[in-house]
Amino acid sequence: MCGISGILHKNSSSERPAAVGAELVGMLESMTHRGRDSSGLTVAGQSAAGGLIVRVWTDDRAGAADVLARAEETVRRAGGVIVDRALRGEFLRLVVNYEGDVRRLAEDLLRTEGVEIHSIGEASEVVKDVGTPAEVDGRHGVGRLSGTHGIGHVRMATESRVDISHAHPFWAYPFPDVTVVHNGQLTNYHKLKRAYEDRGHRFQTENDSEIIAVYLADRLASGATLGCALESSLDDLDGTFTYLVSTKDGMGCAKDRWSAKPLVTMETDEVVAVASEEVALRRVFSDEIARREPQQSEVMTWLL
Amino acid sequence: MNRRLKDLASEGADVTVVNPGARHNTAVGLLHPCKIDIRGSVGYYSASLMDGPEVTIDGNAGWGLGENMMSGRIVLSRDAGASAASTIRGGEVFVGGNAGARAGISMKGGTLVVRGSAGFLTGFMMQKGRIIVCGDVGEAVGDSMYEGVIYVAGSIGSLGNDAVLEDVSEDELLDVWGTLESYGVEERPVFAKIVSGRRLYHLDSLERLEKSAI
Predict the structure, then answer these.
(1) In chain A, which residues have their Cβ closer than 8 Å to the Cβ of B58?
(2) Which residue blocks in chain A are alpha helix, DSSP H?
C-alpha cells in the first residue's frame, strides 16, 4: 500500500506560481498511514530561465563531495553552463544552460561513478528521500517549492528495498519533466524490463514502478500523446495499479482494469486535486464539493 | 472520537459529529440503537461493523462504507467509494450519489440503494439481500452471485459470470418503489432484475459431498 497525490492550478504559471510544494507535503502527510518508508514529490511549472533543472544524488555519503564535484564536471564537459548550484549533503541541484541532447547529458551523468539522477527537467524537479513527508520537507525544504502542478508519493515498500533510489517519483529517462508515482504491483515487470533493456533503455532501480516511467518515455518517443500513452498502458501493464504522471504542461492518471487501487478527484474552475484518499483532498478543499472516483480502465489528463 | 461515540451510543443518545475531515473508521463498531448525524465527508470503513444505529452522513464516504453491518441504517448524501455495503448481513445503506466498484460485494442480507450509478463488479459473490441501483451499473454486475437480487434502472455494462436477467413482478416493483420512497426518491423507474443463473458455485452442487456425509 502506498499513497499518491497530485495537484494542478489551472490559472497559474511559472511567473505566477502556486504553493504546490506545501500543498503536496500537506496532502501526503495526511496519508502516512499508507506508507512511511519514503516520500517524494515532483514540483512542476518552475522557472529555470530557459535552462535545465538537474537533480542528482549519490549513496556514497563519505565521498559525496567528490562524487558530486565529478557530476558538475561531467555537466561542464557535456557543454552545460552551471548558473545555479545547491548542495545538500548527498544531494545536488543544478540549473544548467544546455543546448545539447538531454539523453546524452543523462548518459554522461550515469556513467559518472557514484552518480544517480533523480530528474532532469526544463521546469520541474524530483525531490525524494526516506522518511515521512514532514521529515523529507525538514531535510530538503520541498514545502517551499512553488509551481503550477505536481505529484507526490508516500511509500510502504512491498517488492524492493527501502532506500532513496527506490523512492518515488521516478523520472522517465531521458524525457525532461516526465515523472511518475504509482500505487500497486506490476506482475509483468521483469518481462517488460528485459524487453526495454534490449532496446537500450536504462533502469536505475529494481522497483517495478520505474517501468511505468520507462514505458511512458518509450511511447512518447514514438510520437504518442500523453493520453494515448496512458490508454495503451492499461493493456500493456499487468497487475494492479493506479498511477499519476506529471509532465511539463500537465498531469494525468491511469487506473487498472480491476479498479483495485483507490483514487479520488476534486475539481473547481481554479484547481484540480487527486489523491488515494479524500482525507488528502481535504487539505486543499475545505468545502463539501463534488468528489469523483475514477473507475476501472479509466484515464484522465489535465493540461494547463 | 470512536470511544466517545461508543459511550454515547450505549446510552442511546443522539450524536452530531462535525468536521469529520474524511477521517477513516468514523463511527465504527457501534452496537446499540442510536442516531449519529455526521456533517461532512468520512473516510474508509466508516459506520462499519455496526449493529443497530441510524447513521446519516452529509458528504462523501471512502471505501467500505457500512462493511459487515448486522442491522441499522446508513444514509449518505453524496458518493461512496468502492465496496459500499460489502458483506452486510442486514440493515439498509442508501447512497445519495454514485457508488464505486464492487458495491455490495458478498452481501449476506440487507439492502443497498444507490440513487446514482454503481461501478464495476457490483454484487460480486452476493449471497443474499437486495441491491437497487437507480442509475447505470458497470461491467460484470452480479458476477458469481449465489443468491440475492440486483435491480438496475439504467444501463448495464455487462452481466457477470452466471448472472442472468429475470422478469420483475409487479409486487416486486411496488416493493422497490416503496423502498425508494422511504428515502425521498419520488421517481418510479422500471428496473431490470439480475439474479444468479445457478450454474456456478451454487450451494446445491458445492455441498454435495457435505450432504452425502450427513
Answers:
(1) 288
(2) 20-29, 64-77, 102-111, 133-140, 189-198, 210-221, 226-236, 278-281
Q: Mutating which of B79, B114, B117 best tests the A interface, going by the most A Cβ atoms within 10 A?
A: B79
Which cell goes with B198?
445457478
Same domain, yes or no: A222 and A94: no
How close A184 comes to chain B (CA, Å)? 16
Q: Pick from A122, A151, A176: which residue ends a domain? A: A122
Q: How far apart are CA A283 and CA A275, in angstroms?
A: 11
* Together in a domain, A225 and A93: no
- Domain residues for the domain of A290 are 3-47+129-303
In three-state secondary structure terms, A130 is strand
What is the complex's ipTM, to 2 decimals?
0.83
A288/B58 touch (CB, cutoff 8 Å), yes or no: yes
- Domain of A142, CATH number, reads 3.60.20.10
Cβ pair B81:A292 closer than 8 A? no
Q: Which three cell numbers stand for residue B131?
A: 441491491
Both A67 and A135 in one domain: the answer is no
Contacts of A288 in chain B (CB under 8 A): 40-41, 58-60, 78
* Chain B residues lying within 8 Å of A183, measured CB to CB: none
Q: How many helices and strands in chain B, by DSSP H and E?
A: 4, 10
Q: Which of A71, A100, A122 is the last residue of a domain?
A: A122
Give the closest-approach CA distance of A139 to chain B in angstroms.
28
State mean pLDDT over A106-111: 94
Distance from CA of B119 to the nearest CA of A (A): 7
- pLDDT > 80? residue B207: no
Do B119 and A33 count as a contact with CB atoms less than 8 A apart?
no
Note whether A295 contacts B120, CB cutoff 8 Å: yes
Compute the distance between CA of residue B81 and CA of residue B98 in angstroms, rounded to an integer: 8
Q: Is A286 on the interface with B (CB under 8 A)?
A: no
Closest to A262 (Cβ–Cβ): which among B21, B78, B81? B81
| Share above pLDDT 70 across residues of chain B, in percent, rounded to a whole number | 93
Residues A79, A193, single domain; the answer is: no
pLDDT above 60: residue B94: yes
pLDDT at A196 over 80: yes
A228 is a catalytic site residue: no
Q: What is the pLDDT of residues B2-38, one digit of tens each?
A: 999 999 988 988 999 999 989 999 999 999 999 999 9
Contacts of B135 in chain A (CB under 8 A): none
Q: Is the dihedral of CA A152, A237, B163, B88 positive or negative?
A: negative
β-bridge pairing A52-57 and A91-97: antiparallel
CATH code: domain of residue A70: 3.30.2130.10
Cell of A178: 516526465
* Topology annotation, domain B2-213: Pectate Lyase C-like (2.160.20)
* Alpha-carbon radius of gyration of chain B: 17
Contact B120 A296 (CB under 8 A): yes
